[in-house]
Amino acid sequence: MKKTPKYAQIEAELIAQIESGQLAPGAELPSESDLIECYGVSRVTVRRAIDELYHQGYVEKMQGKRACVKEKVKLQELTSISSYTEEIIRQGMTPSRKLLSFGLRVCTKEEAEQLGLKKADPVFFMERIYFADGSPLCLTSTVLPYQLFREIETYDFEQNSLYQVLEEQYHIQITTTSLKLKAVSAYGNISRFLNVEEDTPLLYSDGITYGIQKDREVPIELFQNYYLTSRFEYSLIQRR
Predict the structure, then answer these.
(1) Domain end point (choices 67, 91, 108)
(2) Are residues 125 and 50 in the same domain?
(3) Is 238 a member of any domain?
(4) Do 63 and 93 belong to one domain?
(5) What are the E-state strand segments in 82-121?
(6) Kind and range of the H or E element at 37?
(7) Shared domain check, 94 and 31
(8) To which H or E segment does residue 114 belong?
(9) Domain for residue 185, yes or no?
């Protein structure tokens, strides 16, 4: 009978600990040094076992940290519009944000076409990281037509929900969102901001949000999002 490779033995025992709850979601795996000493194997063997756990979806790897047991994925339904803050709270977690950049600039040709602007009209832009219970969840970029949202740059968007400000301060009724989804891999600054290794699977979305302003439905936001698939996924119900 063929002998089970050492890495597979380590992998099987760690899976048993994860599935039994001995290693809970979010818990770090034993260090490489501890596993080497416990099983009497090389570092290469230990890393092979952890890589197998990662590829099977049992653990996630973060830059500069030990691999940890993958958190349960949170679902957001595609049938309704909610802000990131609302969605994180709905999932029973505590939201927070980090503002990476913001300001005013001239719109690009593509932005002008999508937002119904004229050449050289100003737009407000910002880039933020959203956290759930202190861990990164998504990186989001937003562009708004400044003619609709004068002085929006004066709001603190590390403390305030964007949609809440649009609804309460600018009296916008958010109506619909048109978005596209695709699978991508983390790279460069995206890896750094989300604190994951390069080539980590991510869910990317981009699109346009519409709202009612003075009894007219108009485009109010362009967005791009990068979600950690280990912590977030969309669900969609289709009917015939």
Answers:
(1) 67
(2) no
(3) no
(4) no
(5) 95-106
(6) helix 32-39
(7) no
(8) helix 109-115
(9) yes
Q: For the chain, what is the domain count?
A: 2
pLDDT tens, position by position, 77-98? 444 455 667 777 777 778 889 9
Give the integer Cα–Cα distance in Å for 199 and 184: 8
Distance CA 72, CA 57 (A): 11
| CA atoms of 34 and 163, how far apart (whole Å) | 47
Scanning the structure block, which residue is given the tokens 């994860």?
A: 18
* 166, pLDDT greater than 90: yes
pLDDT in tens, 100-127: 999 999 999 999 999 999 999 999 999 9
Task: Examine the fold and report which residue of 67, 86, 114 is the final residue of a domain before the chain moves on.
Answer: 67
Longest distance between any two alpha carbons in the chain, whole Å: 76
Number of Cβ within 10 Å of residue 142's Cβ equals 19
Residue pair 168/200 in contact (Cβ under 8 Å)? The answer is no
Among positive and negative, which fits the CA dihedral 179, 237, 83, 204? Answer: negative
**Structural domain containing residue 12:** 4-67
Query: Hey, which bits of 107-231 come out as E strands?
Result: 122-132, 135-145, 173-185, 201-213, 216-228
Helix intervals (H) in 56-107: 84-90
The tally of CA atoms less than 13 A away on the side-chain side of residue 123 is 27
**CATH assignment at residue 215:** 3.40.1410.10
CATH, residue 31? 1.10.10.10
Q: Report the alpha-carbon angle 88-164-181, nearest 5.
A: 55
Q: Is the pTM of this model over 0.70?
A: no
The tokens describing 8, both together, are 């597979």
Give the pLDDT score at 231. 66
Looking at the structure, tell me whether residues 59 and 167 fall in a common domain.
Answer: no
